[in-house]
Amino acid sequence: MPKMKTRRAAAKRFSKTGTGKIKRNHAFMNHMLEHKPKSAKRKLRKSTTMAKGDVKRTERLIPYK
């Protein structure tokens, strides 16, 4: 069976932690930032772990990462 190919778009967006969880960045930080509260922008800056329901689908996109 041939090797699976990594989806390059997903590889640029997601990474794995040491324990195998998937890290992602928050959305809504690209434009129209003057309308968003400072506290909301501060919270969106940090990365977070992927939701449990999306992990299985995302792991197929980045099999070797």
Gist?
Residues 53-65 have a biased composition (Basic and acidic residues). This protein has 65 residues and is of the alpha+beta class.
Which overall shape is indicated by the principal axes computed on the Cα atoms?
elongated
CATH architecture tag: Irregular
| Cα separation of the termini | 19 Å
Spans where pLDDT lies below 50 across 5 or more residues: none
Compute the CA-based radius of gyration.
15 Å
Estimate percent helicity.
Answer: 25-40%
Percent of residues in beta strands?
5-15%
Total individual domains: 1
Give the overall pLDDT as a whole number: 95
Specify the structural class. alpha+beta
Neighbour order of strands in the largest sheet: 1-2-3
CATH class annotation? Few Secondary Structures
Could you tell me the number of beta strands?
3
Number of helices: 3
How many strands, which pairing sense, and closed or not: the largest β-sheet?
3 strands, antiparallel
Query: Would you give the CATH topology?
Result: Factor Xa Inhibitor
Listing every helix as H and every strand as E from the N terminus to the C terminus, the arrangement reads HEEHEH
Helices and strands, with pairings:
Elements: H1 8-13, E1 15-16, E2 22-24, H2 38-45, E3 48-49, H3 52-61
Antiparallel strand pairs: 1-2, 2-3
What would you note in describing this structure?
Keywords: Ribonucleoprotein, Ribosomal protein. The chain has 65 residues and is an alpha+beta fold. The protein is elongated and about 50 Å long. Strands 1-2-3 form a 3-stranded antiparallel sheet. It has 3 helices and 3 strands, in the order αββαβα. The relative contact order is 0.29. The mean pLDDT is 95. Helix content is 37%, strand content 11%. The chain has one domain (8-61): Factor Xa Inhibitor (Irregular), CATH 4.10.410.
